[in-house]
Amino acid sequence: MGITEKIKELEDEMARTQKNKATEYHVGQLRAKIAKLRAQLLEPEKKSGAKGEGFDVMKAGEARVALIGFPSVGKSTLLSKITDTASVSAEYAFTTLTAIPGVLEYEGTRIQILDLPGIIEGAAQGKGRGRQVVSVAKTADLIMIMMDATKSTQQRQLLEHELEAVGIRLNKRKPDVVLKRKNGGGIVVTKAMGLTLTKIDEKMIKSILQGYKIHNCDVMVREDITVDEFIDVVLGSRKYTPALYCYNKIDSISMEEMDKLARQPHSVVISCEQDLNMEHLKDRIWEELALNRIYTKKRGEKPDLNDPLVVREGATIEAVCHQVHRSLVEKFKYAVVYGKSSKFSGGQKVGLNHKVAPDDVVTLFTKS
Ligand SMILES: Nc1nc2c(ncn2[C@@H]2O[C@H](COP(=O)(O)OP(=O)(O)OP(=O)(O)O)[C@@H](O)[C@H]2O)c(=O)[nH]1
Ligand SMILES: [Mg+2]
Question: Residue of the nearest CA to atom 12 in ligand 1?
Answer without folding.
Answer: 72
